[in-house]
Amino acid sequence: MRTRVAIVGAGPAGLTLGHLLTLAGIDNVVLESRTREHVETRVRAGVLEEGTTNLLRSTGVGERMDREGLVHHGVELRFDETAHRIAMSDLTGHSIMVYGQQEVVKDLIAARLQSGAPLHFEAECASLEDVTSERPRVVFTQDGRAHELECEFVAGCDGFHGVCRSAIPAAALRVYERAYPFGWLGILAAVAPSTEELIYARHPRGFALHSLRSPEISRLYVQCSPDDDLAHWPDTRIWDELHVRLAAKGWTLHEGPIIEKGITSMRSFVAEPMRYGRLLLAGDAAHIVPPTGAKGLNLAIADVALLAPALVDWFHAGTSTGLDMYSDTALRRVWRAQDFSNYMTALLHRHDDEFENMRQLSRLQYVANSPAAARSLAENYVGLQLPGF
Ligand code: APR
Ligand code: PHB
């Protein structure tokens, strides 16, 4: 098997890169270890920045998103049982779209299958060979047999637990990492959202988030410990905590059947550089952010929005400037998102340290009362549109 760009992983990063390359007429093959059903039903985040929606829309995969996605012009910070609205659109001129990551993935897979470009499920990459040569190879298994895919570039879009990053020798890779002493227990509930806008709540019992997926489906989270066990969280306990943590005067949380639940731990991670020879990392394979800033999916799309034109310039014009600059350019946005996600995480989670909890309250009061502080939060939340990012 041969192609020009071998893409490992059919998450948002790999599928979007494949989509952009196919539109530009550059042969590429996507290899995904899981089944189509698995990647299409995996519940993940759901906040899209305008940069993300513009890219999907302008490349022909935004039709269902524009029909079913919900445009939000503000978010709410809730503390001391009081709502404080951050008027994102008024403060920045930009909005966000609430549309589940797995819906984006479904739309990209449908476009891929329609284009006829190769996408192999249950094809697991085992290793990369010769990534510093002009003919790297991806070794993968499918139907119990070993295969090789020869290519000119490998795009490592295989997420945090993928294998591509490990093809970079330790001496050439710098890793920055932080684990947080927090976890999120997330649920999908078959009940109309009790709010029109997302609510980020700070409470002495811990953080809670009320998000949504559609007029019939609510998405909610409670802070738990990172090594917590779902067995400790029967549905009644989840709702009890949500009622207490989200409480506000004159507001009611509506309960419904829980149709999905899971626990995620929170970490910050950056691998640098994002390019090694003919290997290009994108998305979670290169960086992880805690979900409080809603940046993970947007960073994955921002990476490939740089990478695709860089590869097009290489193949069509023979220039390597874009590829040479890829890592540095992408990492500027990644670090901005790291700082913002860290800020939001510290702003809202219950800390073990009472000094931190008091400092946090003061920060929240400041954001709620200072238009300058609110604008800073809002411009990061909607996605920085500044030169260099
Ligand atoms: N071979 C082939 N595919 C693999 C391998 C492998 N060895 N290892 C992992 N994969 C696949 C995974 O099954 C997954 O479908 O790579 C894909 C990576 O997709 P994501 O984890 O969704 O990562 P990415 O595309 O970078 O998107 C980042 O996902 O985790 C969220 O919050 C994150 O929203 C962000 C987004
Ligand atoms: C979600 O809807 O799943 C969601 C929203 C905002 C976040 C994280 C997750 O910060």
Descriptive labels:
single chain; alpha+beta; FAD/NAD(P)-binding domain; binds adenosine-5-diphosphoribose
CATH C-level of the domain at 5-71 and 96-176 and 267-349: Alpha Beta
* Beta content: 25-35%
What is the overall shape?
Answer: globular
Helix content: 25-40%
How many helix segments? 11
The rounded distance between the terminal residues' Cα atoms is: 37 Å
**CATH topology category name of the domain at 5-71 and 96-176 and 267-349:** FAD/NAD(P)-binding domain
Number of strands: 20
Low-confidence runs (pLDDT<50, min 5 residues)? none
CATH architecture title of the domain at 5-71 and 96-176 and 267-349? 3-Layer(bba) Sandwich
How confident is the prediction overall: mean pLDDT?
Answer: 97
Ligand inventory reads:
adenosine-5-diphosphoribose, P-hydroxybenzoic acid
- Largest beta-sheet details: 8 strands, mixed
Strand order of the largest sheet: 6-5-14-15-16-13-17-20
Compute the CA-based radius of gyration: 21 Å
The CATH superfamily of the domain at 5-71 and 96-176 and 267-349 is known as FAD/NAD(P)-binding domain
Q: Quickly give the structural class.
A: alpha+beta
List the helices and strands and how they pair.
Elements lengths: L4 E4 L3 H12 L4 E4 L4 H6 L5 E2 L1 H9 L4 H6 L1 E3 L2 E5 L2 E5 L1 H5 L3 E3 L2 H15 L3 E2 L2 E7 L7 E6 L2 E6 L2 E4 L17 E16 L9 E3 L6 E7 L2 E8 L10 H12 L11 E15 L2 E2 L2 E3 L5 E2 L7 H22 L3 H28 L5 H16 L1 H12 L7
Parallel strand pairs: 1-2, 1-12, 2-8, 5-14, 12-19
Antiparallel strand pairs: 3-7, 4-7, 5-6, 9-10, 10-11, 13-16, 13-17, 14-15, 15-16, 17-20, 18-19
Helix pairs in contact: 1-6, 1-8, 8-9, 10-11
This protein binds adenosine-5-diphosphoribose and P-hydroxybenzoic acid.
